[in-house]
């Protein structure tokens, strides 16, 4: 351990690992109070049909603004939350808030969107997850068919039996399941078949890297998903060229900065209204 004595006589660590670990502890302790302090909020990224650029759904993405730490990315705080049951509290908060917002969006715009929610493996470890989700959903009166749960690919090969059974229970209840970040994990084709998945989301790394080198892979994923009766969403579309290519492969849906960044609720509603108005005029 790289430990040294400072000029003022205090011990401090100079190794990067210690620094990182101290920072993690600090972020985690702030995160523990984030819901109570009302520091979490959601943004929504629209999902478009690639054929005619219609918005058919939105994905809820968690955001955290902390006084001491500033804006912290979910890529940083979600993995920390996943180390304990904190992810469960955050997960229920996200679902409750997103459904609340979905009711408002539906009222204000009269558009019936599908809502995608990201779910962590750890949330599926508790047996009462499906019933708690149902309680929240019923409270908001949102139809099951409008909700899509996004799980990451690595989850499918997990050894945890309970995650499997809870996932199947959710699907039997009628929740729609999407496989997020497809292509980044190691799942064999067989895994895809073992789950009642409706949607495969092609990871943005395939879309953003040189299209020429990934064209074959992307085409194969779209073809395979189609054969298995699933639809595909391409993540991370940033350019017109990427849109055009994805569209040419038969990929049905797209998401990315080229279409829209994630938006706060008010801006989501404004975007939907502006599109309606342009259709009417
Ligand atoms: P994800 O579910 O795969 O979400 C897509 C990520 O890509 C989002 O990052 C989104 O802002 C970003 N993105 C969208 N379009 C583009 C694009 O054109 N280019 C690029 N470079 N990026 C794009 P974000 O919001 O930082 O979220 C990161 C991850 O954190 C999510 O990946 C998801 O795994 C996790 N996450 C976010 N919110 C939640 C949540 O409520 N619960 C759980 N369990 N995980 C969450
Ligand atoms: Mg997602
Ligand atoms: Mg993803
Ligand atoms: Mg993800």
TrEMBL record:
Domain EAL residues, every copy: 24-276
Protein's UniProt keywords contain Nucleus: no
Keyword vocabulary terms for this entry: Membrane, Transmembrane, Transmembrane helix
Keyword Iron-sulfur: no
Top-level taxon of the source organism: Bacteria
Protein name: Bifunctional diguanylate cyclase/phosphodiesterase
Organism for this UniProt entry: Halomonas aquatica
Residue window of the full protein shown: 480 to 760 of 760
């Amino acid at each position: 351990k790289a430990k040294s004595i400072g000029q003022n006589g205090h011990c401090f660590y100079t190794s990067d690992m210690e620094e990182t670990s101290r920072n993690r502890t600090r972020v985690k302790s702030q995160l523990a109070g984030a819901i109570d302090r009302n520091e979490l909020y959601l943004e929504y990224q629209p999902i478009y049909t690639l054929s005619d650029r219609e918005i058919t759904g939105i994905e809820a993405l968690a955001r955290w603004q902390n006084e001491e730490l500033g804006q912290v990315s979910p890529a940083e705080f979600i993995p920390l939350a996943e180390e304990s049951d904190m992810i469960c509290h955050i997960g229920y908060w996200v679902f409750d808030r997103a459904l609340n917002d979905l009711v408002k969006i539906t009222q204000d715009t009269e558009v019936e969107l599908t809502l995608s929610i990201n779910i962590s493996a750890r949330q599926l470890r508790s047996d009462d997850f499906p019933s708690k989700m149902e309680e929240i959903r019923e409270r908001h009166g949102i139809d099951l068919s409008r909700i899509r749960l996004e799980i990451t690919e690595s989850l499918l090969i997990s050894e945890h039996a309970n995650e499997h059974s809870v996932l199947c229970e959710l699907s039997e209840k009628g929740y729609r399941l999407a496989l997020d970040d497809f292509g980044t994990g190691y799942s064999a084709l067989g895994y895809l078949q073992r789950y009642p998945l409706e949607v495969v989301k092609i990871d943005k790394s395939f879309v953003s890297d040189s299209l020429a080198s990934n064209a074959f892979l992307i085409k194969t994923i779209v073809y395979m998903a189609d054969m298995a009766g699933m639809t595909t969403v391409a993540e991370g579309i940033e350019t017109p060229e990427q849109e055009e290519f994805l569209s040419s492969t038969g990929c049905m849906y797209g998401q990315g900065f080229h279409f829209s960044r994630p938006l706060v609720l008010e801006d989501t509603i404004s975007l939907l209204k502006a599109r309606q108005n342009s259709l009417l005029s």
